[in-house]
Design goal:
Elements (H helix, E strand, L loop, with lengths): L7 E6 L15 H16 L3 H14 L3 H13 L3 H17 L3 H14 L4 E6 L8 E4 L2 E2 L9 E3 L2 E8 L6 E7 L5 E5 L12 H7 L8 H46 L1 E2 L2 E2 L3 H35 L9 E9 L2 E9 L1
Parallel strand pairs: 2-8
Antiparallel strand pairs: 1-12, 2-5, 3-4, 3-6, 6-7, 9-10, 11-12
Helix pairs in contact: 1-2, 2-3, 3-4, 4-5, 7-8
Length: 333
Amino acid sequence: MKHLARGALLLSIASVVVTADRPASATDPATATMLFNEARQLVAAGHYPEACPKFEESQRLDPGIGTQFNLADCYEHTQRLASAWALFLDVASSAGGTGQVAREHVARRRAAALEPKLSKLTIAVPTNVTGLEVHRNGEVLGGVLWNNPIPVDPGSYTIEASAPGKKKWSTVATVGPSGAAVTVAIPALEDGEGLPPASSLAAAHPDADASTPDTRLSERSRTERAIALGVGGAGVLGIGIGAFFGLRSIAKHSDYEQLCNGGVCEPAAGPIHDDAVAAGDASTVAFVVGGALIAGGAVLWLVAPRASSPVSRIRLAPSVGSSGAGVVLAGGW
Protein backbone atom coordinates (compact mmCIF):
# COMPACT_ATOMS: atom_id res chain seq x y z
CA MET A 1 0.00 0.00 0.00
CA LYS A 2 2.90 2.36 0.66
CA HIS A 3 3.88 2.20 -2.99
CA LEU A 4 0.41 3.00 -4.39
CA ALA A 5 0.36 6.26 -6.29
CA ARG A 6 -2.06 8.85 -4.95
CA GLY A 7 -3.62 11.74 -6.86
CA ALA A 8 -5.67 14.79 -5.94
CA LEU A 9 -8.93 15.55 -7.72
CA LEU A 10 -9.67 19.30 -7.89
CA LEU A 11 -12.89 20.67 -9.37
CA SER A 12 -12.86 24.50 -9.20
CA ILE A 13 -15.90 26.49 -10.27
CA ALA A 14 -14.39 29.99 -10.24
CA SER A 15 -17.24 31.68 -12.10
CA VAL A 16 -19.95 30.60 -9.66
CA VAL A 17 -20.47 31.81 -6.13
CA VAL A 18 -22.85 29.65 -4.16
CA THR A 19 -24.18 31.27 -0.98
CA ALA A 20 -25.87 29.24 1.71
CA ASP A 21 -28.79 31.68 2.08
CA ARG A 22 -29.58 32.19 -1.59
CA PRO A 23 -32.28 30.03 -3.22
CA ALA A 24 -32.45 29.23 -6.93
CA SER A 25 -35.61 31.28 -7.52
CA ALA A 26 -37.63 34.12 -6.00
CA THR A 27 -39.95 33.17 -3.16
CA ASP A 28 -41.48 36.45 -1.94
CA PRO A 29 -40.74 39.49 -4.14
CA ALA A 30 -43.17 41.77 -2.29
CA THR A 31 -41.56 41.21 1.12
CA ALA A 32 -38.11 41.42 -0.47
CA THR A 33 -38.95 44.85 -1.94
CA MET A 34 -40.27 46.08 1.40
CA LEU A 35 -37.09 44.96 3.20
CA PHE A 36 -34.89 46.48 0.51
CA ASN A 37 -36.62 49.87 0.85
CA GLU A 38 -36.33 49.75 4.64
CA ALA A 39 -32.63 48.90 4.36
CA ARG A 40 -32.05 51.81 1.97
CA GLN A 41 -33.70 54.17 4.45
CA LEU A 42 -31.42 52.89 7.22
CA VAL A 43 -28.39 53.37 4.98
CA ALA A 44 -29.45 56.93 4.22
CA ALA A 45 -29.53 57.53 7.99
CA GLY A 46 -26.11 55.90 8.42
CA HIS A 47 -27.45 52.86 10.31
CA TYR A 48 -25.50 50.21 8.41
CA PRO A 49 -25.48 47.48 11.13
CA GLU A 50 -29.30 47.49 11.11
CA ALA A 51 -29.50 47.68 7.31
CA CYS A 52 -27.30 44.66 6.48
CA PRO A 53 -29.68 41.97 7.87
CA LYS A 54 -32.55 43.47 5.87
CA PHE A 55 -30.49 43.39 2.67
CA GLU A 56 -29.55 39.79 3.44
CA GLU A 57 -33.16 38.72 3.90
CA SER A 58 -34.26 40.64 0.80
CA GLN A 59 -31.59 38.86 -1.23
CA ARG A 60 -32.67 35.50 0.18
CA LEU A 61 -36.31 36.09 -0.71
CA ASP A 62 -35.72 37.57 -4.18
CA PRO A 63 -32.09 37.41 -5.41
CA GLY A 64 -30.95 40.32 -7.58
CA ILE A 65 -27.70 41.95 -8.64
CA GLY A 66 -28.82 45.33 -7.29
CA THR A 67 -29.62 43.94 -3.85
CA GLN A 68 -26.34 42.05 -3.82
CA PHE A 69 -24.42 45.21 -4.67
CA ASN A 70 -26.13 47.12 -1.84
CA LEU A 71 -25.37 44.24 0.56
CA ALA A 72 -21.69 44.33 -0.43
CA ASP A 73 -21.63 48.08 0.20
CA CYS A 74 -23.28 47.52 3.61
CA TYR A 75 -20.69 44.89 4.52
CA GLU A 76 -17.91 47.30 3.59
CA HIS A 77 -19.33 49.98 5.91
CA THR A 78 -19.53 47.46 8.79
CA GLN A 79 -15.90 46.35 8.27
CA ARG A 80 -16.81 42.91 6.89
CA LEU A 81 -14.34 43.58 4.10
CA ALA A 82 -13.73 39.98 3.01
CA SER A 83 -17.47 39.38 2.60
CA ALA A 84 -17.85 42.68 0.76
CA TRP A 85 -14.91 41.88 -1.54
CA ALA A 86 -16.29 38.46 -2.46
CA LEU A 87 -19.78 39.88 -3.11
CA PHE A 88 -18.47 42.71 -5.30
CA LEU A 89 -16.61 40.13 -7.40
CA ASP A 90 -19.79 38.06 -7.64
CA VAL A 91 -21.75 41.12 -8.77
CA ALA A 92 -19.09 41.89 -11.38
CA SER A 93 -19.24 38.34 -12.71
CA SER A 94 -23.05 38.33 -12.90
CA ALA A 95 -23.20 41.80 -14.44
CA GLY A 96 -20.60 40.90 -17.05
CA GLY A 97 -22.57 37.79 -18.00
CA THR A 98 -25.72 39.86 -18.62
CA GLY A 99 -24.09 42.73 -20.51
CA GLN A 100 -24.26 45.29 -17.67
CA VAL A 101 -20.82 46.70 -18.43
CA ALA A 102 -21.05 49.83 -16.28
CA ARG A 103 -22.15 47.89 -13.19
CA GLU A 104 -19.43 45.30 -13.78
CA HIS A 105 -16.71 48.00 -13.90
CA VAL A 106 -17.98 49.68 -10.72
CA ALA A 107 -18.11 46.36 -8.83
CA ARG A 108 -14.60 45.35 -9.94
CA ARG A 109 -13.25 48.77 -8.96
CA ARG A 110 -14.84 48.48 -5.49
CA ALA A 111 -13.39 44.98 -5.05
CA ALA A 112 -9.93 46.10 -6.16
CA ALA A 113 -9.99 48.97 -3.65
CA LEU A 114 -10.78 46.55 -0.82
CA GLU A 115 -8.18 43.91 -1.66
CA PRO A 116 -5.17 45.64 0.00
CA LYS A 117 -7.25 46.08 3.20
CA LEU A 118 -8.30 42.44 3.59
CA SER A 119 -7.42 40.65 6.82
CA LYS A 120 -6.09 37.14 6.30
CA LEU A 121 -5.87 33.96 8.34
CA THR A 122 -3.27 31.31 7.54
CA ILE A 123 -3.56 27.84 9.07
CA ALA A 124 -0.16 26.15 8.99
CA VAL A 125 -0.59 22.39 8.95
CA PRO A 126 2.05 19.75 9.80
CA THR A 127 2.96 17.29 7.08
CA ASN A 128 2.77 13.49 7.11
CA VAL A 129 -0.32 13.25 9.32
CA THR A 130 -2.54 10.50 7.98
CA GLY A 131 -6.24 11.32 7.96
CA LEU A 132 -5.78 14.85 9.30
CA GLU A 133 -8.94 17.00 9.33
CA VAL A 134 -8.99 20.72 10.02
CA HIS A 135 -12.11 22.68 10.99
CA ARG A 136 -12.62 26.44 11.15
CA ASN A 137 -15.66 27.50 13.18
CA GLY A 138 -17.05 23.99 12.78
CA GLU A 139 -16.66 23.84 8.98
CA VAL A 140 -14.18 21.53 7.29
CA LEU A 141 -11.27 23.43 5.77
CA GLY A 142 -10.14 21.64 2.61
CA GLY A 143 -6.51 20.70 2.18
CA VAL A 144 -6.15 23.06 -0.78
CA LEU A 145 -6.61 25.96 1.66
CA TRP A 146 -4.02 24.81 4.20
CA ASN A 147 -0.87 26.92 4.52
CA ASN A 148 -2.45 29.72 2.43
CA PRO A 149 -3.51 33.20 3.59
CA ILE A 150 -7.32 33.19 3.36
CA PRO A 151 -9.26 36.51 3.36
CA VAL A 152 -11.59 36.61 6.38
CA ASP A 153 -13.72 39.17 8.17
CA PRO A 154 -12.34 40.43 11.49
CA GLY A 155 -13.39 38.33 14.46
CA SER A 156 -12.67 35.15 16.42
CA TYR A 157 -12.20 31.78 14.75
CA THR A 158 -12.10 28.38 16.45
CA ILE A 159 -9.51 26.14 14.79
CA GLU A 160 -9.65 22.37 15.42
CA ALA A 161 -7.44 19.53 14.17
CA SER A 162 -8.00 15.80 14.52
CA ALA A 163 -6.66 12.54 13.09
CA PRO A 164 -7.21 8.83 13.74
CA GLY A 165 -5.35 7.68 16.85
CA LYS A 166 -4.49 11.28 17.84
CA LYS A 167 -5.80 13.63 20.51
CA LYS A 168 -7.97 16.44 19.22
CA TRP A 169 -6.36 19.90 19.26
CA SER A 170 -8.07 23.28 19.19
CA THR A 171 -7.41 26.98 19.67
CA VAL A 172 -9.12 30.32 19.10
CA ALA A 173 -7.56 32.86 16.75
CA THR A 174 -8.59 36.52 16.80
CA VAL A 175 -8.16 38.39 13.53
CA GLY A 176 -8.10 42.18 13.61
CA PRO A 177 -9.22 44.67 10.94
CA SER A 178 -7.27 46.74 8.38
CA GLY A 179 -5.17 44.09 6.70
CA ALA A 180 -4.24 42.12 9.80
CA ALA A 181 -2.39 38.86 9.09
CA VAL A 182 -2.68 36.00 11.59
CA THR A 183 -1.06 32.57 11.34
CA VAL A 184 -2.19 29.59 13.41
CA ALA A 185 0.35 26.76 13.49
CA ILE A 186 -1.17 23.36 14.25
CA PRO A 187 1.39 21.41 16.31
CA ALA A 188 2.21 17.72 15.97
CA LEU A 189 -0.83 15.97 17.42
CA GLU A 190 -0.29 13.86 20.51
CA ASP A 191 -0.99 10.15 20.38
CA GLY A 192 -4.40 9.21 21.70
CA GLU A 193 -5.58 6.06 23.43
CA GLY A 194 -5.60 3.07 21.13
CA LEU A 195 -8.88 1.40 20.20
CA PRO A 196 -9.69 -1.91 21.90
CA PRO A 197 -9.38 -5.06 19.76
CA ALA A 198 -12.35 -5.88 17.58
CA SER A 199 -12.90 -9.12 19.52
CA SER A 200 -13.26 -7.14 22.75
CA LEU A 201 -15.81 -4.84 21.16
CA ALA A 202 -17.78 -7.84 19.88
CA ALA A 203 -17.75 -9.45 23.31
CA ALA A 204 -18.90 -6.25 25.02
CA HIS A 205 -21.58 -5.61 22.38
CA PRO A 206 -22.77 -8.96 21.01
CA ASP A 207 -25.54 -7.27 19.00
CA ALA A 208 -23.15 -4.85 17.31
CA ASP A 209 -22.84 -4.80 13.53
CA ALA A 210 -20.58 -7.71 12.51
CA SER A 211 -20.52 -6.84 8.81
CA THR A 212 -17.27 -7.25 6.91
CA PRO A 213 -15.30 -4.23 5.57
CA ASP A 214 -16.49 -5.07 2.04
CA THR A 215 -20.12 -5.05 3.18
CA ARG A 216 -19.72 -1.70 4.92
CA LEU A 217 -17.94 -0.34 1.85
CA SER A 218 -20.77 -1.51 -0.39
CA GLU A 219 -23.33 0.23 1.83
CA ARG A 220 -21.29 3.44 1.74
CA SER A 221 -21.01 3.20 -2.05
CA ARG A 222 -24.78 2.92 -2.40
CA THR A 223 -25.30 5.90 -0.09
CA GLU A 224 -22.81 8.12 -1.93
CA ARG A 225 -24.25 7.16 -5.31
CA ALA A 226 -27.75 7.98 -4.09
CA ILE A 227 -26.45 11.41 -3.04
CA ALA A 228 -24.80 11.79 -6.46
CA LEU A 229 -28.11 11.05 -8.20
CA GLY A 230 -29.87 13.58 -5.97
CA VAL A 231 -27.31 16.30 -6.75
CA GLY A 232 -27.46 15.50 -10.46
CA GLY A 233 -31.26 15.56 -10.38
CA ALA A 234 -31.20 18.99 -8.77
CA GLY A 235 -28.89 20.12 -11.57
CA VAL A 236 -31.33 18.87 -14.23
CA LEU A 237 -34.11 20.76 -12.45
CA GLY A 238 -31.93 23.90 -12.49
CA ILE A 239 -31.40 23.55 -16.25
CA GLY A 240 -35.17 23.22 -16.69
CA ILE A 241 -35.77 26.37 -14.66
CA GLY A 242 -33.13 28.17 -16.72
CA ALA A 243 -34.87 27.12 -19.94
CA PHE A 244 -38.22 28.37 -18.61
CA PHE A 245 -36.89 31.79 -17.68
CA GLY A 246 -34.89 31.96 -20.93
CA LEU A 247 -38.05 31.46 -22.99
CA ARG A 248 -39.87 33.99 -20.81
CA SER A 249 -37.09 36.54 -21.39
CA ILE A 250 -37.29 36.02 -25.17
CA ALA A 251 -41.06 36.45 -25.11
CA LYS A 252 -40.81 39.63 -23.03
CA HIS A 253 -38.16 41.07 -25.35
CA SER A 254 -40.47 40.39 -28.29
CA ASP A 255 -43.34 42.20 -26.54
CA TYR A 256 -41.02 45.10 -25.77
CA GLU A 257 -39.90 45.47 -29.39
CA GLN A 258 -43.52 45.56 -30.55
CA LEU A 259 -44.16 48.52 -28.23
CA CYS A 260 -41.16 50.46 -29.53
CA ASN A 261 -41.41 51.71 -33.11
CA GLY A 262 -38.89 54.09 -34.60
CA GLY A 263 -37.19 54.63 -31.26
CA VAL A 264 -40.41 55.77 -29.58
CA CYS A 265 -41.72 53.44 -26.89
CA GLU A 266 -45.15 53.27 -25.31
CA PRO A 267 -45.36 53.73 -21.49
CA ALA A 268 -45.97 50.02 -20.98
CA ALA A 269 -42.66 49.14 -22.63
CA GLY A 270 -40.52 49.99 -19.59
CA PRO A 271 -41.94 47.38 -17.15
CA ILE A 272 -41.92 44.76 -19.89
CA HIS A 273 -38.24 45.47 -20.57
CA ASP A 274 -37.46 45.16 -16.84
CA ASP A 275 -39.30 41.81 -16.74
CA ALA A 276 -37.27 40.61 -19.72
CA VAL A 277 -33.97 41.54 -18.06
CA ALA A 278 -35.01 39.93 -14.75
CA ALA A 279 -36.03 36.72 -16.52
CA GLY A 280 -32.72 36.70 -18.38
CA ASP A 281 -30.78 37.08 -15.13
CA ALA A 282 -32.75 34.25 -13.51
CA SER A 283 -32.14 32.06 -16.57
CA THR A 284 -28.39 32.68 -16.44
CA VAL A 285 -28.16 31.86 -12.71
CA ALA A 286 -30.28 28.71 -13.08
CA PHE A 287 -28.24 27.42 -16.04
CA VAL A 288 -24.90 28.03 -14.31
CA VAL A 289 -25.96 26.51 -10.97
CA GLY A 290 -27.72 23.61 -12.72
CA GLY A 291 -24.60 22.85 -14.74
CA ALA A 292 -22.44 23.01 -11.62
CA LEU A 293 -24.75 20.58 -9.79
CA ILE A 294 -24.74 18.14 -12.70
CA ALA A 295 -20.93 18.25 -12.79
CA GLY A 296 -20.78 17.80 -9.01
CA GLY A 297 -23.17 14.82 -9.18
CA ALA A 298 -21.01 13.23 -11.87
CA VAL A 299 -17.88 13.65 -9.75
CA LEU A 300 -19.59 12.21 -6.66
CA TRP A 301 -20.72 9.20 -8.71
CA LEU A 302 -17.23 8.61 -10.10
CA VAL A 303 -15.47 8.83 -6.72
CA ALA A 304 -17.99 6.65 -4.84
CA PRO A 305 -15.96 3.82 -3.20
CA ARG A 306 -16.02 0.32 -4.66
CA ALA A 307 -15.33 -2.92 -2.84
CA SER A 308 -12.18 -3.55 -4.87
CA SER A 309 -10.63 -0.10 -4.42
CA PRO A 310 -9.50 2.10 -1.50
CA VAL A 311 -12.12 4.38 0.00
CA SER A 312 -12.18 7.78 -1.68
CA ARG A 313 -12.13 10.87 0.44
CA ILE A 314 -13.69 14.09 -0.80
CA ARG A 315 -14.01 17.52 0.72
CA LEU A 316 -15.94 20.68 -0.16
CA ALA A 317 -14.37 24.04 0.72
CA PRO A 318 -14.88 27.71 -0.17
CA SER A 319 -12.29 29.32 -2.43
CA VAL A 320 -11.59 33.00 -2.93
CA GLY A 321 -9.01 34.68 -5.08
CA SER A 322 -8.23 37.84 -7.05
CA SER A 323 -10.30 36.63 -10.03
CA GLY A 324 -13.42 35.57 -8.15
CA ALA A 325 -14.81 33.30 -5.52
CA GLY A 326 -16.31 29.86 -5.62
CA VAL A 327 -16.32 26.30 -4.34
CA VAL A 328 -13.57 23.67 -4.40
CA LEU A 329 -14.26 19.93 -4.41
CA ALA A 330 -11.11 18.08 -3.37
CA GLY A 331 -10.34 14.43 -2.81
CA GLY A 332 -7.77 11.66 -3.06
CA TRP A 333 -7.59 8.07 -4.18
